[in-house]
Design brief:
The complex is a heterodimer of chains A (about 80) and B (about 230).
Chain A lengths: L1 H19 L21 H24 L11
Chain B lengths: L12 E2 L2 E2 L1 H11 L11 H18 L10 H17 L12 H22 L1 H6 L11 H47 L1 H40 L1
Antiparallel strand pairs in B: 1-2
Classes of the chains: A mainly alpha (about 80), B mainly alpha (about 230).
Membrane topology (chain B): Multi-pass membrane protein
Subcellular location (chain B): Mitochondrion inner membrane
Protein name (chain B): ATP synthase subunit a
Amino acid sequence: MYIFSNMTMSINRLRTEIMGGHDAGTHHQFTGIAKYFNSYTITGRRNCVLATYASIAALILFFKLKPKKQKAVKSS
Amino acid sequence: MMVSFFDQFASPSYLGIPLIAIAIALPWVLYPTPPARWINNRLITIQGWFINRFTNQLMLPLKVGGHKWALLLASLMIFLITINMLGLLPYTFTPTTQLSLNMGFAVPLWLATVIIGMRNQPTVALGHLLPEGTPIPLIPVLIIIETISLFIRPLALGVRLTANLTAGHLLIQLIATAVFVLLPMMPTVAILTAAVLFLLTLLEVAVAMIQAYVFVLLLSLYLQENV
């Protein structure tokens, strides 16, 4: 009886996995930072894109505004 | 004066007047305006049937917001297909072999689709730059790749049309020259080359129509993403 109920549970889990198929992105429940930055929901994807663009812009600005080292003039 | 195979692609001018304007205006002259009659003659009926059917097919995957583009895309298609077909006549100039003309169509229309997308649905437009289900380590790389592919689109549109038509016209001229040169020397080879030329001309007719269709179809696909 116990073995039979275990078999039923595992068959049900397998059926769910087979019928699961492609994730439509509507049943995700993200927590933490994944709620805002993920590649499944449209807002998550948008935030990832904006974050990447902001990082690239920050990198460019950093290297542009970095003070250049002046070479010390040697007296002869 | 050295005559080269690329002379056919030089923009024609006469006494300083650019004749490309006449070449561009020619398709407009060839399509009669339908008069206000219930039943027209056969030519105008076929013309109307073709334009209606093509526009219907093109607008099928688009939402209602994209239907405003029906006139623009249908007229662009008729224009390109007519210019491409006229260019296959001997001694004619094909405006669509000029990269400037094709980029002049591709860049503003592509930019319009991008601006429409960013203005009306910015979240969806930006979200499209990251494919769904991308693994986390690949996200920045894929965003950069998708951005590059977005900006490559107008270039690809323009260059595709230019390159296909230029290559086709060049091949026709090369093989025709080969037939002409071989005729006194090796008539059998010349006849075989003429057969190849005939098949190539048929191919170029197909390419002329297909390239015009592909140009307009891709623009409608870009619009579909943004509407």
